[in-house]
Amino acid sequence: MFIYLYGYKDRVSFNAETELVTSVIQGQADHYDGHKLKKLGEEDLNKGIKIETVAGDKGYDNGDNRYHLKEKGINSAIRLNNYRTQKKDENKEGWLKPKGSSEYQEGLKERYKVEGKFGEAKK
User: What is the mean pLDDT of residues 66-81?
Assistant: First the structure.
């Protein structure tokens, strides 16, 4: 018999230029990450941190987050879930356009810095 115990998980915003964590939200590990993006961004904006592009893994890929970023004038480099770009209907084109943008591509290239910091913290 296996017993799974869920712990806690930090959601962080990170400045790729300075390589510093700018905001942290703690939560349960089994909770959906996507709902925390707006709060992280608001914390950074309240601190006077300018946000040009938000990069994130597929856990943050939802329509609410993309709409929120667009409303704030922030570029999205949140990695798209495959079901958005591999579907066989006309809505697919709406997801392929941002995926091809330079902001999206550059944001994804910066994500390795975040993952490196997580590895550093684990050590």
Answer: 91
